[in-house]
Design goal:
367 residues, alpha+beta, four-stranded antiparallel sheet, 13 helices, 41% helix, 17% strand, globular
Length: 367
């Protein structure tokens, strides 16, 4: 109970990650890539030591013990030689409580974002894939969870198309017809601009780690409102996608050449590009369409551009935008707050350990 788990092998992202085993977990085991750390309960508080091990500067300290090779690794002897500052146990526990409360706030913001995105994805699938409002009206029913004005925008029947049965008045199109694929963006050679590498894009969620400023050389260019989709294996299969909302107004960023940039044309809202990239049938189509040598397979723009889509009326697309745009903006706001709290968390720990800041002051900062 309350053992710490430390990832002792892996790449730059997974190596050195740590967590605490919650008390309610049944007896379990770990594989050879994870080390179990059991603390002397009379000398060390697990929450405090976990906060210490997961601090960014301490990760650099752990990296220094790397045994070498193409894959990062440390040994049991390395872990036993770690030097951890230990204030009195009561102080450790107080520090753990303060930082744990901050961690809880960050976790809540991330959970909220997951819920908001799930709502947006459910709306996308209901309206543009399953056609739930049209099916309900065709049966003489009111569309579930929809006001009368919005329901009136949907037809009550279907008609045949190249894509099969579509809502009456809608049309079938390919991705290339209704989306811009790698739209033209201007960025001068050598200009310093926000740069985003593939490692900074997550496998879930629209948000990314902060981009860094770098002189533009060669890469994919994007601006706010674009969606980034990883084109190469295994990043595509792993789900790497992001919605670009982290740039200053009218600024152009750039990143890996292994990104495909998607941007919907009217009548679709910008966020539609990201929701499509998270739609599993679309991802499966892209994965099946990959070509190239083993281990370096990519999906090509022209193949991706043939993906079929149902195109609604402008009125339905506008109504969809009114619903999902606030969700996207709330996600971006929550992510910014979480980043601010994470920065505060990283700042507080070394100051609390060194005595530069006292616990009452830290609690006041959190409030």
């Amino acid at each position: 109970m309350h053992d710490l788990l430390l990832n002792i092998t892996g790449d730059g992202v997974t190596f050195g990650r740590a967590c605490m085993v919650p008390g309610e977990v049944l007896p379990a085991c770990v594989n050879q890539h994870v080390s179990i750390i059991r603390l002397d309960s009379e000398r060390a508080d697990p929450g405090y030591v976990l906060s210490y091990l997961t601090h960014p500067t301490i990760k650099e300290y752990i990296e220094a013990f790397n045994a070498g090779g193409s894959r990062r690794a440390i040994t049991k002897a390395h872990i036993e030689s770690f030097v951890v500052p230990l204030p009195p146990l009561t102080v450790q526990r107080e520090i753990s409580q303060v930082l744990g409360a901050l961690d809880d706030r960050i976790a809540l913001l991330r959970e909220t974002n997951a819920t908001l995105e799930a709502i947006a994805q459910a709306l996308f699938k209901s309206w543009f894939v399953d056609f739930d409002p049209v099916r309900a009206k065709s049966q003489g029913l009111a569309p579930a969870g929809m006001d009368e004005a919005t329901a009136a925008l949907f037809p009550d029947s279907f008609e045949e198309s190249a894509l099969g049965a579509l809502p009456t008045g809608w049309s079938a199109a390919t991705l290339a017809e209704v989306f811009e694929i790698n739209p033209v963006r201007t960025l001068k050679k050598g200009a310093v601009a926000p740069y985003l590498d593939m490692a900074s894009v997550g496998t879930i969620g629209q948000c990314v780690e902060r981009p860094v400023l770098r002189e533009f050389g060669s890469g994919t260019k994007f601006r706010n409102g674009d969606t980034l989709l990883a084109r190469i294996t295994p990043c595509l299969e792993n789900g790497k996608s992001a919605f670009v909302d982290f740039l200053d107004s009218d600024h152009v960023g750039w990143g890996s050449t292994e990104f495909i940039v998607l941007r919907p044309k009217a009548p679709f809202p910008e966020y539609m590009g990201y929701l499509l990239c998270r739609h599993m049938p679309f991802r499966e189509y892209a994965i099946r369409s990959m070509s190239g040598t083993s281990g370096r397979q990519r999906v090509q723009n022209d193949v991706l551009g043939r993906y079929p889509l149902a195109v609604p009326t402008h009125a339905v697309a506008a109504a969809f935008a009114e619903l999902v745009n606030p969700l996207q903006q709330a996600i971006a706001s929550n992510h910014a707050r979480a980043q601010t709290l994470a920065t505060l968390l990283d700042t507080l720990l070394p100051r609390l350990i060194s005595g530069q800041i006292r616990l009452p002051e830290a609690e006041e900062a959190l409030a």
